[in-house]
Amino acid sequence: MVGAHLVLFWLSLVAYGAEAGLQLGGFRPASPLRSALFGGLLLHALFLGVRWVLSGHAPMAGLFESLTVFSFCTALSAVLLCGTAGTLSAWKPLSVLVALPQAGAALLDKRLTPLYPALDTPWFSTHVGFSFLGYGLFAAGLALSWTYLRHGGDEVYRAAGKSALYGFSAFSAGMVCGGIWAFYAWGSYWIWTPKEIWSVVLWVYYAALSHLKFLPPGAGWPGWGRRQEMWATAAGYFLMLATFLGVSLLLRSSHSF
Amino acid sequence: MIGAGWRFLTSLTTFAWVGLFFCVAGAAGSVVMGRYPELFSDMDARILLDWFARKGFADPGPTLWLYGLLLATALLALNAACCTVDRLVPIFRGNVTLHRVLPHVVHLAFLGVVLSHLAGAIYGDRIPGLAVPEGGFVPVGETGWVLELNRLDVVTAPEGYPRDFSAAVTLYRDVTPVARGVVRANEPLFHEGYGVYLKRFGPTPRGVPYAVFDANRDPGAVAILVCSILFTVANLLVLVTARGEDA
Question: pLDDT, tens digit, for every residue of A47-77?
Fold first, then answer.
């Protein structure tokens, strides 16, 4: 059973890869619910559920589980935000953004690992879960803003705005859960490590982005408009990647892999 | 002049520029911190005011980002407060709806979190590195308490990693026990505003188990918790009340 559950992981990767291949080849599903990506999402959910039962903890510890949960949350965001006919064009970049972290996870050690006692708390799954949901929504924001910049469309623009706002809200909830956990673990809601600093940087970035929507075009920031907002939404994805992977892999912090 | 200052403080553009400045200062700081461990490695061992008094003015170059970050945080908080004052007055004079008020509840909660952190950074207390062998005693900073480690329990998995660990401790004032409990990961012992946290453990060279504790007090802790929850709830309600409208 321990090894068999990985079959679900590989099947979901195949489904995500098929979706990306079909999209890049110019084939689009008739509806999101009849896509390979949706099938992959169901298999992926099953995989994560089985792994949770087998390991006895939320499958969000270590680089393999982090990448696969990131991929899952990106796929979930695709279904949540891009389920209408007007936003289906964003599925092409989204399918790639879903498949890439899952493919990256496929290269890593997938063994079940025990949970260090400090991580054995409900705050672990809520903190990491909400944070990754935010990351997934930010990834959907990149796909949607990219689509808007290439093809335009009011519906795509609105969905991109939602990705930033919903992502900000989910990420905020993740930070609150992380702060409460830190207080019980260390006696402080905040510690000075690169990961914490970058998390707040990402939070402030999306807070600013969510507010700039209300800036009248040309007022204060000449030239600011929908296209600039979409560029900023796309840039947020790379800031998120720097926070998620860059800091955790390159800088010494409480969240290092 | 006053009008221009008020427009500056309530402006979205100000928020955007200060937010951008915050991002740059934070990104720079995350790199600089690693390059100057002699300056920054003990930032969490003390409250920020104490750390600033000892090292904040020692070397202006490597600490410049921190000044920038704190200045930007202050401006962001001021901007949120002024924006809310500026907008709430017309809202309450006109059509008061949850959808119009909620963003300002989010602002106020954010302001509460920042001010509570400030209180903790000034009036808090951190006593790190209370090392004590099993059966031994250690004074807890200047609190007048003495901490006794009654028993250290470590459950080791066959693979060799600690599966669970806990420390039974007693706090004394003079010779009178004032608090007793079991401390483990994520489960500190709280007493009179202080939390006693188990940081690490091991055997002494003589083979006696020992544990190292931190004792921290954060007077802003409850307010931060309340404001954080208020922020989250108000933020989610903003999304709910905005359904059907543009994000």
Answer: 999 999 999 999 998 899 999 999 999 999 9
For chain A, give every domain's residue range: 5-250
Q: How far apart are CA A43 and CA B61, in angstroms?
A: 52
Q: Which residues of B touch A172 (CB under 8 A)?
A: 231-232, 235
Q: How many angstroms separate the CA atoms of B100 and B98, rounded?
A: 5
CB A257 within 8 A of CB A62: yes
Nearest CA distance, B135 vs chain A (angstrom)? 24
Place of tokens 């490597």: B62
Asked whether the beta carbons of residue A220 and residue B76 sit closer than 8 angstroms, the reply is no
| Rounded Cα distance, A56 and B130, in Å | 33
DSSP letter, residue B171:
E
Q: What is the pLDDT of residues B136-195, one digit of tens each?
A: 999 999 999 999 999 999 998 887 788 889 999 999 998 999 999 999 999 999 999 999
Which among A176, A202, A231, A255 is the top mutation candidate for probing chain B, defined by the most B β-carbons within 10 Å of its own β-carbon? A176
Geometric angle at alpha carbon B151, from B148 and B154, rounded to 5°: 135
Question: Are A179 and B165 within 8 A, CB to CB?
Answer: no
Q: In this complex, do A172 and B232 lie within 8 Å of one another by their Cβ atoms?
A: yes
What b-and-e string marks burial along B176-214, b requiring 16 or more CB atoms within 10 Å of the CB? eeebebebbbbebbebeebbbbbbebeeeeeeebbbbbb
Say whether residue A56 is in contact with chain B using an 8 A CB cutoff: no
- Tell whether the model's pLDDT for residue A120 goes beyond 70: yes
Q: Which of residues 183-202 of A touch B (CB under 8 A)?
A: 183-194, 197-198, 200-201
Contact B167, B152 (CB under 8 A): yes
Query: For the ranges A150-159, B56-65, B221-230, which has the lowest average pLDDT?
Result: B56-65
Q: Which two tokens stand for residue B84?
A: 């809310």
Chain A residues touching B247 at Cβ < 8 A:
158, 161-162, 164-166, 213
| Residues A122, A123, A124: CA angle, nearest 5 degrees | 90
**Among partner residues A185, A201, A215, which is closest to B12 by beta-carbon distance?**
A215
Q: What are phi and psi of B182, to 5 degrees?
A: -110, 125
| Mean pLDDT value across residues A97-118 | 92
Fold of B126-217: Tick-borne Encephalitis virus Glycoprotein; domain 1 (2.60.98)
Query: Measuring CA to CA, which residue among A210, A4, A248, A180 is closest to residue B239?
Result: A210
Among A192, A207, A215, select the one facing B19 at the smallest CB separation.
A207
| pTM score of the predicted model | 0.93
Whole-number Å distance between alpha carbons of A133 and A139: 10
Q: How many CB pairs under 8 A join A and B?
A: 137
CB contact under 8 A, B15 and A208: yes
